Amino acid sequence: MTASGAASTSDSGGAAGRDGSAGSAAGPTAGASGDAPAGASGGAPAKRSAKAPAKAPAKASRKAPAKVPTRAATGSAEAPTKAAGKGASKEPAKAPAKSSAKAPAKAPAKAARGESRTALVRRARRINRELAEVYPYAHPELDFEDSFQLLVATVLSAQTTDLRVNQTTPALFAAYPTPEDLAAADPARVEELIRPTGFFRAKTRSIIGLSTALRDDFGGEVPGELKDLVKLPGVGRKTAFVVLGNAFGRPGITVDTHFGRLVRRWKWTAETDPDKVESAVGELFPQSDWTMLSHRVIFHGRRICHARKPACGACPIAPLCPAYGEGETDPDKARKLLKYEKGGYPGQRLNPPKEYLEAGGLPAPPLGAATASGAATASGTAG
To answer: Which one of 99, 175, 257, 348 is CB 3.0 to 4.6 Å from 141, fit for a cystine?
Structure first.
């Protein structure tokens, strides 16, 4: 779980802007009425018929195909009737086909771009309410029993899955249950224990370093303040907010890769920097929603709205998503893309909350467990 967050700004539920959210797509009606073709009226055509036909068709053949459908669509059918007879009746039939093919693809993007601030806030909060119904059991997907275990597990979750961290930390915490124990640990031994999480040398320096700081500067206790947490080795704002929100009950937005991807797909923000994403999204919601919002969005990103192939056809918030159609829209094919409990597979925690189990979730297998379902979950389920 790579979590990221920043100190969010206050709620802007009464954000500025009128409720004029989606700009309507204008049809292809902007065409001139066509003065140039009308030049062939009166008695002159009888005498100049020998020369004019030679030039007029040449000009018409180069320009008319682009303009005639527009005139036909707007109702100025006089010139085609005189000039082409039956041929004119076929052209109007082509114009609607072209416009109807393009409109559906562009409409979602236009709706998001033309959305007012007030409409954005309302849509964002509606998505949050919908996700709360889909994932009433959303929770941090790292196994932990206290703030120290959560802090260490979150540092280890960088560049790997929460599942792999959960399969690795039981042996680590059994050997080093307190900050004092881990601060005095042999680095080589710690490296061996956390090797499955990747980048084990750098992570060993971080968790031994933060344990030493906890022992020396905080009496062996994890501090409950952002300013103190970010001073610890290997602890950034994202890790700090995971700990503050889930161990101390203090609101924070966790911007990991899933969260950032989804809020950009939903057009909540175009920012890519985690701190700016956190700030922009924080303005859309009251602080009391921040922690659970993070869990729900991350749950949705891991289970349905995947990075490479979103399961759009199985998505419960598809009507609210400007990016609908980027992934598989066929319901049957989309259901085959679902992961974890949504796809009938185990989750990431070996010891998940009771609410998750009651909702039908399955605990993940221990490291090295030879089970078919465990293998299916452990392989290729990023984040």
So the answer is: 348
Nearest by Cα to 266 from 253, 284, 254, 245? 284
User: What residue type is 318 in one-letter code?
Assistant: A
Q: Check if 256 is active-site.
A: yes
Q: Which two tokens stand for residue 106?
A: 């562009």
Which residue in the list 143, 203, 238, 342 is annotated as catalytic?
Answer: 238
User: For residue 83, what are the contacts with CB-CB under 8 A and spacing of at least 6?
Assistant: 37
Rounded-to-integer distance, Cα 357 and Cα 359, Å: 5
What pLDDT score was predicted for residue 370?
A: 54
Contact 235, 229 (CB under 8 A): yes
For CA atoms 6, 254, 226, 183, give the dihedral sign.
Answer: negative
CA angle 359, 362, 366 (to 5 degrees): 150
Segment 60-99, tens digit of pLDDT: 444 444 443 333 333 333 333 333 344 444 444 443 333 3
Q: Is the pLDDT of residue 299 over 80?
A: yes
Told to judge if 238 belongs to the known catalytic residues of this protein, a careful annotator would answer yes
**Catalytic residue chosen out of the listed positions 256, 267, 339, 342:** 256
**Any idea which residue has 């004019």 for tokens?**
52
Query: What is the rounded end-to-end Cα distance, in angstroms, of the chain?
Result: 6
Taking the model in full, what pTM does it have? 0.69
